Amino acid sequence: MDDDTLLSIGAVARRTGLTVKTIRFYADRGIVAPSAIGPNGFRRYDSDAIARLELVRTLRALGLDLDTVRQVLARERTVSEVAAAHADAVDLQIRILRQRRAVLRAVAQRATDTEEMNTMHRLATLTDAERRRIIHDFVDDAFGGVDANPELVELLRATVPDLPEDPAPEQVRAWMELAELAQDEDFRAAVRRMAEYQARERANGDTTGLHHELTEAVRDLVGAALAAGTAPDGPGAAEVVDELTARYARTFGRADDAALRRWLLERLTIANDARVERYWRLVAAVNGWPAPQELAEIFDWFTAALRTVSATRP
Question: Looking at 100-109, 111-120, 151-160, 208-217, which range is the least confident one?
Fold first, then answer.
């Protein structure tokens, strides 16, 4: 090629926007070699080399590493293949950055020490599989080897936390608290006691399920009593208890008597752990679901009223 059709490295730098130092670096690394070397040792570039340098500039601006750029120039990989793979990598980087932003905002909104911030960041950046593993480990530990209510076990496994790609600070805080709760040994032991109680009941023939209708009945009747200012040991409480024990008796096919009240009191005492309700509220917060109704006060009242009635009746 005639020297008149070749450009000096300085002219190439002005045309491509690359620095002379960068063009030399690409040449030395075998990315884009000069088209010719003049007698004076100066590097010269033709239009094809300039086009390759412009392609390198674009690929590097998109974040591709030099090895990938070299593969594209050598036609070992197509631009489409590289773009698709890099887009996936960028998506992952964006997700990580969004999670980091959420952690920083959560830290900024509350008095957080260094240890808590590190824990928050570690938990927020877990993969979906790692988050599921925390929940499944909790379920395995609490229910493993015990014939507890299968509907409850399935519900726990199905409702795993799904932290969004761009979580709000409150979702990060909820996930942090949920992960800590699911790994808390005392909470696991409490849920294990619930599972063992369910297993004993199932061994005695109880296959009646999760009893949503009973929960709704307790919520409605006790909620009305609370709204009316009725104390669990005051006038009117016994009528609420009588209505509810009658419903439990019908559901479980038992006599509505003192034995039922003792059985129901044990059931409520074991099941009414405020941390269980907190667990479900945290799952809802992480997943962006509507918060479930708070029932701890409802069942506390019912348990207290049932205990009062049981103490005054044979």
Answer: 111-120
- Alpha-carbon distance of 172 to 102, in angstroms, equals 7
User: Taking the model in full, what pTM does it have?
Assistant: 0.66
Q: Which residues pair with 36 in a beta bridge?
A: 44
> Range with the lowest mean pLDDT among 81-90, 135-144, 155-164, 207-216?
81-90
Provide the 8-state DSSP code for 210: T
Question: pLDDT tens across 268-278, in order?
Answer: 999 889 999 99
Q: Any idea which residue has 């033709």 for tokens?
A: 46
The CA distance from 25 to 13, in Å, is 13
Structural Rg of the chain based on CA atoms? 34
Give the sheet arrangement for strand 36-37, strand by strand: 7-8, 43-45, 36-37
Confidence of residue 1 (pLDDT cuts 50, 70, 90): very low
- Cβ partners under 8 Å of residue 152, min gap 6: 198, 210
The pair of three-digit structure tokens given for residue 114, joined into one six-digit string: 């260094």
The answer to whether the beta carbons of residues 53 and 31 sit under 8 Å apart is no
CB 240 within 8 A of CB 222: yes
Instruction: Kindly tell me if the per-residue pLDDT of 119 is higher than 80.
Output: no
Residue type, 36: A
User: Cα–Cα distances in Å, from 292 out to 207, 224, 310?
Assistant: 25, 18, 31
Q: How far apart are CA 227 and CA 181, in angstroms?
A: 32
Half-sphere exposure of 187 (CA within 13 A, CB side): 17
Q: How far apart are CA 187 and CA 142, in angstroms?
A: 9
